[in-house]
Amino acid sequence: MKKSFFIVCLVILFSMTIFSAPKKVAYVINGSLGDQSFYDSGYEGIKKLEKDYDVETKLMECNFDPSLYYPNLMTAARWADVVFVISYGFEEELKSIAEMFPNKIFVNIDTVVEDDKKIISNVDFIEEEGSFMAGVVAGIVTTMTELPGINPEKLIGAVGGDDDIVIRSFVYGYDQGAKYVDPEIQVKTIYVGTWDDPVKGKQAALQLYSQGVDVIFQIASLTGAGVIQAAQEVGKYAIGVDSNQNSLAPGHVITSMLKEVGKSIEFVFKQIIDGTYKPGTLYKLGLKEEAVGLAIDEYTYQILPNETVEKILGIQKDVIEGKITVKEYRE
Predict the structure, then answer these.
(1) Which residue of 41, 58, 130, 307 has the smallest Cβ count within 10 Å?
(2) Are residues 164 and 193 in the same domain?
(3) What is the DSSP string of 236-289?
(4) 51-96: per-residue pLDDT in tens?
């Protein structure tokens, strides 16, 4: 009886993945820093880990070069105890390498990559909720014809870096938010096909503005910097993304839809440190978890009156409390 109990305990013990306190953390991204948005937000979280937990970190930028995806991720897996990765374009490579290093921690950010052995955990932002709020802002602003640059047409726009499931989720939420304000509002969208070309972003924005759009939600990383430049040049409005971009063109960026990549990294790492982390976990983070939301600051109040901002925040509160349901694109 005692022998059987001892064997059962051993089986349970060895079936568990036990992680020691990590000392090395890698951040592998398919793009590069300098976007003042998505990738930079994640890197802020990585640098915070250095400060708060005294860990060594390494940044691996792939610069959208597919030939770098596998070797950079392999280098990170060999070196680090924990690998945070933005794996757009190299999901299969991530699964393959994770299975080679089952005792390492792999956390994929912003998409869901499922491996058979449940090694990879995923942070899946409910971007529809944050984008719903961006749509609410755009919907309200496009009806405020007393503002400079606003025309009577109920037409708003979006510029996406690529036509993929994540960006479609943004647009889906954005459209819901605008139609919550006024069902007659229409959304025109251009998918540029690049994440690091502000010139193309500007061209797309100018095209939309010329068609009667007066507010554009940029969902295009560094490409979106061109959208903000265009808004400033023609006296129209933009909404930033991922990080607070309100200060990039004062008077023209109404707000930014925050996707707190850095905070999500901190959130997962805290679980790793306190021993509650489990491989293969799917973290779904939205407005309630403060993982997405709006950047409301002095630049917002330069454009919108107090009562309008209060109305926007009231709608956001209703979403958080479940009084307003935002549908997910993947449903």
Answers:
(1) 307
(2) yes
(3) -EEEEEES--GGGSTTTEEEEEEE-HHHHHHHHHHHHHHT---TT-EEEE-TTT
(4) 999 999 999 999 999 999 999 999 999 999 999 999 988 899 999 9
